[in-house]
């Protein structure tokens, strides 16, 4: 009797959670002493899934170039992610595109515990090493880099909020408004018996 087949490389192991929207895993056991280089693009189905993950209207393009190379006892995955995302302007709701080109670099080492949020120093140039498993997925790393680079408040050129900023804090004469001036005026009218 043959043993059960292991899941294909592109499928997550049972109990590993949902599969990434854009995945190009590489088995560590199949890497040569020099590592490997990959250049990949997301197809239309993957881009639609990425748009849902990112919370944007569309992902028109998503690709990466990556080099997986030996680093001490582990492996380093580094490269560049490129994407074009479309989302509505926060002022006008007009659809606008953002071009993203984001470098990434991750170090994977055996025997390393996953870093908690308290282990990451904001002033460090590099993230702490991650645990080395049986596969590395440069597409997921590229996806995370793009997700962090998306503008959370996209604004069309020249779009401004009316009445926000200096205009809201000053009256027509350019004098600063007091935060409770409207309440003071209401109180005065009430004391005089005027209706609001």
What can you see in these coordinates?
The protein has 196 residues and is of the alpha+beta class. The chain folds into 2 domains: 26-149, no CATH class; 165-196, no CATH class. It contains 4 helices and 7 strands. It has helices at 44-54, 138-149, 166-169, 181-191; strands at 26-27, 36-41, 58-71, 74-88, 95-109, 130-131, 135-136. A 5-stranded mixed β-sheet has the order 2-3-4-5-6, covered by helices on one side. Strands 1-7 form a two-stranded antiparallel sheet. Strand 3 and strand 4 (74-88) form a beta hairpin. The radius of gyration is 26 Å and the shape is elongated. The model is unreliable at 1-12 (pLDDT under 50).
Quick take:
With about 200 residues, the protein is an alpha+beta fold.
Keywords:
single chain, 196 residues, alpha+beta, 2 domains, two-stranded antiparallel sheet, 19% helix, disordered N terminus
Task: Report the average pLDDT across residues.
Answer: 82
Uncertain regions: pLDDT < 50 for 5+ in a row?
1-12
Radius of gyration: 26 Å
Q: How far is the first residue's CA from the last residue's CA?
A: 88 Å
Strand arrangement, largest sheet? 2-3-4-5-6
Q: What is the strand content? A: 25-35%
Number of domains: 2
The tally of beta strands, per DSSP, is 7
What topology emerges from the helices and strands here?
Elements: E1 26-27, E2 36-41, H1 44-54, E3 58-71, E4 74-88, E5 95-109, E6 130-131, E7 135-136, H2 138-149, H3 166-169, H4 181-191
């Amino acid at each position: 009797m043959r043993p059960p087949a292991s899941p294909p490389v592109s499928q997550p192991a049972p109990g590993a959670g949902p599969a990434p929207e854009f995945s190009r895993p590489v088995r560590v056991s199949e890497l040569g002493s020099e590592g490997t280089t990959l250049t990949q693009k997301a197809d239309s189905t993957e881009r639609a899934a990425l748009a849902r993950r990112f919370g944007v209207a569309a992902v028109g393009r998503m690709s990466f170039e990556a080099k997986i190379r030996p680093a001490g006892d582990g492996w380093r995955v580094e490269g560049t992610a490129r994407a074009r995302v479309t989302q509505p302007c926060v002022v006008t709701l007009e659809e606008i595109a953002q071009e993203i080109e984001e470098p990434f670099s991750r170090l994977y080492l055996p025997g390393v515990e996953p870093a908690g949020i308290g282990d990451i120093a904001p002033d460090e140039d590099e993230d702490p090493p991650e645990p080395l498993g049986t596969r590395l997925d440069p597409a997921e790393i590229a996806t995370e880099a793009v997700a962090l680079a998306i503008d959370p408040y996209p604004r069309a050129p020249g779009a401004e909020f009316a009445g926000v900023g200096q205009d809201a804090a000053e009256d027509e004469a350019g004098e600063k408004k007091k935060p409770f001036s409207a309440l003071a005026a209401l109180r005065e009218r009430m004391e005089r018996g005027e209706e609001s």
